[in-house]
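User: I'll paste a sequence; please echo it back and then give the predicted structure.

Assistant: Echoing your sequence first, then the prediction.
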Amino acid sequence: MLVVIAIIAILAAILFPVFARARDRARGASCLNNMKQMGLAHQMYMDDFKGGLVPVGVGGGPGVIYPVSGAIYWPDLLSGYTAKTVKLHKCPTAKSFGIGMNHPQLGKWRTDLGVPICKISQIVKPGETVCFADTGYIVNYQERDPDKWYEDPKANALTIVFRTPDNVGYYDAAASATRVVNRHGGRANCAFMDGHAQAMPVSKLGFQYPEGHELAMWDTH
């Protein structure tokens, strides 16, 4: 009996990590599929709004998908082009929504109050400009290497925006340091402005570079 138990324990030690990796790959694939659907929905949205990108939020609310009072946020603004479900906007690996929009470079806040909407015509390289991505509250937000950023495991906030380095006063504040994070095997799932989705390390998106840098894939240049 002891021999059998020992064999079972050995097999479990071998198989559990394999199952865990398979589960993580499945979750990553599901998240990437969500990104693809969001990228395509956004393309349809822009077609209907003369090339205007969906705002991060406008006055009103609460929404249905993201039911926070005081504003209607982009998940609800895009809901006419997507399945009206929280599941599409939630990374399966995240505790909260976990998929954020680029703010403030692309997704603008309160365009209903006169803030200019960003338009696709302003984006020099749509295929190299990230719009939606895996997002989380970053603990070590002062770390200069984006690939070393890690999420606060206790954070339950509904992370629907990732902030860009030009978001002065918020990007480097502990309470609002929501950034793109390598959530799937050292990569972040991303949707780009041309509609395609791709998994890549955060460092390749160039958050370590200033606005206008040729390797910064978070701005409009």
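The beta strands are 57-59, 71-73, 99-103, 130-137, 161-163, 178-180, 188-192, 197-200. The first helix runs from residue 2 to 48.
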